[in-house]
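Researcher: Please translate sequence to structure tokens.
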Amino acid sequence: MLDIVIQKVKSVITDPKGFFQKLKKEKGVGDAFVFIALLSVISLVGGIIVNILMPQPQLEGFEQLATPLGAGAIVIASVVGYFLGLALSFVWAGILHIWIMIWGGRAPYSKTYQLAAYASTPSMLFGWIPFIGMFAGIYALILLIMGTPKTHNISMKRSLWLYLVPVAVLILLGILLFGAAMMLLFSAGEMSQF
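Model: Translation complete:
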């Protein structure tokens, strides 16, 4: 089983178009779920190591809000997160499936689950590594864009828009929230001078 997972990882990373084309033959969500469960262990262990070895930065003035976690608490939180992540993979695939259907997708939920599972390969392998994790997330998004036309029989242009619209909305919301937070901090600083 492990050799099959390793082969799938290589194929997803190096030949995504070919991989998603062959994905049409895979039945159900079982293989994709096992894939996520095994790769998530890498993310789990890597995340634990990073959280234990790397000190978390603290913002000046917010030190009292930081609660340092011991190694045991980090391990427990990570294991709970692992099982929660596995359960939420079905929810994420369901939301993605509805969104793809709105944009004209035609495949069943199982294909969307497979797409989401295999496209998340870079994030599961490298997402726990500081800074590199951001690029892994971008590559996972690219894999979703590339895999959706193969699994849902829609155009590449439609697939591109299908993902770029929510990304643009999230970026805009992030900018607005950041701006609002900065205004609040600035006004709080002004108030404290009086």
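Researcher: Any highlights?
Model: The CA atoms of residues 119 and 142 lie 8 Å apart.
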